[in-house]
Specification:
Helix content is about 75%, strand content about 5%. By secondary structure, the protein is mainly alpha-helical. The radius of gyration is 21 Å and the shape is globular. The relative contact order is 0.15. It comes from Odocoileus virginianus. Its main location: membrane. This is Olfactory receptor.
Length: about 300
């Protein structure tokens, strides 16, 4: 199967907020603030996780991967959004759209699975503490992360390639801020029921199944936490797990509302706000959620800042 459709248009016009032009400046300013915040916050988490020996554990190995993933995720769409919102040129080349489609969905699919792996790590740490070091060995952690990346790539390459084969019948206008699979399916002409069905089935495995596993893990964790007699132990367990749960709901909520319904039934503005949420807001908030609710990360950040100022 060819990766791109030979009858494709030269470029796509991204309408963005054409029906609400007053939104363009506020969204541009928000992106201009949140994008550097997301990059700096996630870089800080990667640095402290690598530099502080106390954070050399599976939990922070997965958190480092999540931070790197969020940086790639938001970078796959925000620079182009800023360009389109800040200038009168509202277009993206067909090849640029295809590249964005692949990268955006690789990151999204991988994050779905990585969040499930992180919940499994917390389940083992709290419910099977005596077997934790035996189960979550470095080799197993690397294998789990590699599997999430390979699965995310497989999903994106297959779904994006099938979507790019759809006939567009001369249409080159996308009512969106970015190139995203549901919007391209909605824009395509001809019979696309098979594409909608395929997307729904695949997204059940990438969204619904991991979310169910996460909820089951946290049900077991909650049961185990209430058995802990130490108040300090309970607080630490809840602090660590609540950070992850907040991130899960921030990411899965918008993604499920976008991908577990037929693209033809998606409202006009829903894709724009959902893409802003799971592609921009969530990566920007994640570092703060994990930092503010985690004493170890706050302590490591404090030590890093002190060492920087002392060296200066």
């Amino acid at each position: 199967m060819e990766l791109i459709n030979k009858s494709h248009p030269e470029e796509f016009i991204l309408l963005g907020f054409a029906n609400r032009p007053w939104l363009e400046l506020p969204v541009f300013i928000i992106l201009l603030i949140t994008y550097p915040m997301a990059m700096m916050g996630n870089i800080a988490i990667i640095l402290v996780s690598k530099l502080d020996p106390r954070l050399h554990s599976p939990m922070y190995f997965f958190l480092t991967n999540l931070s790197f993933l969020d940086m790639c995720y938001t970078t796959s769409i925000v620079p182009q959004m800023l360009f389109n919102l800040g200038t009168s040129k509202k277009t993206i080349s067909y090849m640029g759209c295809a590249v964005q489609l692949y990268f955006f969905h690789i990151m999204g699919g991988t994050e779905c699975l990585l969040l499930a792996v992180m919940s499994f790590d917390r389940y083992v740490a709290i419910c099977k503490p005596l077997h934790y070091t035996l189960i979550m060995k470095q080799r197993i952690c690397i294998l789990l992360v590699a599997t999430t990346w390979l699965s995310g790539m497989s999903y994106a390459v297959s779904e994006a390639t099938i979507t790019l084969q759809l006939p567009l019948c001369g249409h080159n206008t996308l009512d969106h801020l970015v190139c995203e699979i549901p919007v391209l399916i909605k824009t395509a002409c001809g019979e696309k029921g098979a594409n909608e069905l395929t997307l729904s089935v695949v997204c059940i495995f990438f969204l619904a199944v991991p979310l169910c596993l996460i909820l089951i893990s946290y049900a077991c964790i909650g049961h185990a936490v209430f058995k802990i007699k130490s108040l300090e132990g309970r607080k630490k367990a809840f602090g660590t797990c609540s950070s992850h749960l907040i991130v899960v709901f921030l990411f899965y909520g918008p993604a499920i509302s976008m991908y577990l319904q037929p693209p033809s039934s998606i409202s006009r503005d829903q894709p724009k706000f959902m893409a802003l949420f799971y592609g921009v807001v969530t990566p920007a908030l994640n570092p703060f959620i994990y930092t503010l609710r985690n004493k170890d990360v706050k302590g490591a950040l404090g030590n890093l800042m002190r060492s920087i100022f002392i060296s200066k």
